Amino acid sequence: MIEQQEPVTRAVVPAAGRGTRFLPITKSVLKEMLPIAGHPAIEYIVKEASDAGIDDIFMVTRTGKRAIEDYFDADPALEAELEKLSLDQIRSDYAIVGRHIFDPIVFDALENITPGAGGEYQLTGAFAQPIATPGENGGGLYGVIIDEPRYDTGDKLGYLGATITFALADPDMGPALREYLNTQPNEA
Question: Model-level pTM?
Fold first, then answer.
């Protein structure tokens, strides 16, 4: 007679390490939270367990790893805000790449801005006041069209493109990555 075993319904995920192979980034970002195609690495582990029918997942962590718990916890206020947005409302063909030289008038404007896209206070909201202020009074706003590669690390594909480009240029990682990419099938 064959013994019938109970189905596996619990999993233990060890996530207490210090991520020393990823230093220095893991001094401030948990290895488990490093993104893979827009999702933290640990999410893939949890999804795999869930897809296999596991309904209790225990994570073994240590002090300082609260971000893992926060990631899987519900955030009703954020979720409600996101439901009000789909993404076309916040997309644009223009970008500000984070290199600014401001006249002090912008700092006054920052004190008076209202929340923008997604209910967030945005630096770009402070640009309206300098645009409307005459140049002789410290106003105006100048931009430069950049005709070089730019990576939008706020966008999943841009982030991935930047990661690949910089990794290929890295003398320690580049050759091995190039070799790996050449061994991958053209279809995913």
Answer: 0.64
